Amino acid sequence: MTGTHRQTRGGFTLIELLVVIAIIAILIGLLVPAVQKVRAAAARAQCLNNLKQMGLAMHGYMDANNGLPSNGNYSWNGSLVTATNAWSGVSRILPFIEQESLFRGIDFSLGYGVQPAISSKRVATFICPSEVNDKGYGTDATFGHKYWPINYSLNNGTWAVLTGKTSAMRSGDGAFGPNQACRPADFVDGLSNTVAMAEVKAFTNRVVGASTTTVYAAGLPPLSQTSAVASLPLAAFNPATYSHVEWVDGKVDETGFTTVFTPNSNVAYSSGGVAYDVDVVLAREPNPGDTYAAVTSRSYHSGGVNVMFMDGSTRFISNGIDLATWRALGTRVGGEAVSAP
After folding, report:
1. Calpha distance 165→215 (Å, rounded)
2. CB atoms within 10 A of CB 115
3. How far is 318 from 304, CA to CA, in rounded Å?
4. Distance, CA of 58 to chain centre
5. What's the whole-model pTM score?
6. What does the alpha-carbon distance between residue 59 and residue 310 come to, in Å, rounded to a whole number?
7. Buried b (16+ CB within 10 A) or exposed e, 258-288
8. 271 near 237, Cβ under 8 Å?
9. Are 259 and 158 in contact (CB under 8 A)?
10. Distance between terminal CA atoms of the chain?
């Protein structure tokens, strides 16, 4: 009788299986950060490209109109500030970023608040790929939301945005501002040394002044540090009040920024046991009081923000930039001998 030989098939032991699982986990752990870095780099590059497109658009607008667009227009009628045209400067450049049809739909003789078919639209060039709040704001019966945010804001200067409203209507020292349409000759510091636009975060919490009628006859110096915000006379905090949620609006807290603080500075404000990183506007442009604003450039990119200069060049500015240098880059006629780092 011939015996049969059975060949047993080898298999993984429990220890070997655990080793394989551990190796796979390590490989995944190494791969995920690498993929995240690639995605972050791609988002930052696309963000820079958005700014580059807007830089070209600004120069196209300036060539066609012999000056830059103002970021809102206001006048004093004897008793109140009147918004003669509250539309943002970025709304003016729409034809130069392939948004001609959207631009033609705007009636600039009317406010943006009564044109939700325009204000509700998402403009891709205005949104950074890293923005976590790429969503509509407000409510509208037809469109669901009334506004769409923006991640790139116009440089309104150091601190003062619109002062002396009952007489002079003085704009700030930046490249853009209310009632301000600068030409190349107005940039005494040089186009390559003056910031035009920088990143901001949508849905940043905003704090306003306790009085919207205060006029500072001697002027108000810019805050020296973020902790000084606590010394300002501020209104009760509303956590549902935001900056940079309306690309159509020319106010500094919507489509502007100032250089009071360096990029991504944490402007801490505590309310109800919760700490917020805020923008501060003592009085908005339509209020009779002086408009001073600490509206900080912020981004989701590690280490700094993307910036576009008045010559159309773009670069990444580190959070660690010296405050004096950052403020100097924000002025068009400051006379400072500095260059972008």
Report:
1. 9
2. 17
3. 4
4. 17
5. 0.88
6. 9
7. bbbbbbbbebebeeeeeebbbbbbbbbbbbb
8. yes
9. yes
10. 92
Contact 306, 233 (CB under 8 A): no
Query: pLDDT digit string (tens) for 160-209?
Result: 999 999 988 999 999 999 999 999 999 999 999 999 999 999 999 999 99
210-234 confidence digits (pLDDT tens) = 999 999 988 999 999 999 999 999 9
* Tokens standing for residue 234: 């501020």
Query: Of 160, 185, 184, 163, which is closest to residue 174 (Cα–Cα)?
Result: 160
Rounded Cα distance, 55 and 52, in Å: 5
**Whether the predicted pLDDT of 1 surpasses 50:** no
Q: Is the dihedral of CA 210, 213, 216, 222 positive or negative?
A: positive
Separation CA 245–CA 236 (nearest Å):
21
Count CA atoms within 13 Å of residue 55 on its CB side.
23
Radius of gyration for the alpha carbons in the chain, expressed in angstroms and rounded: 25
Q: What are the residues whose beta carbons fall under 8 Å from the beta carbon of 20, sequence distance 6 or more?
A: 12
Average pLDDT over residues 306-333: 96
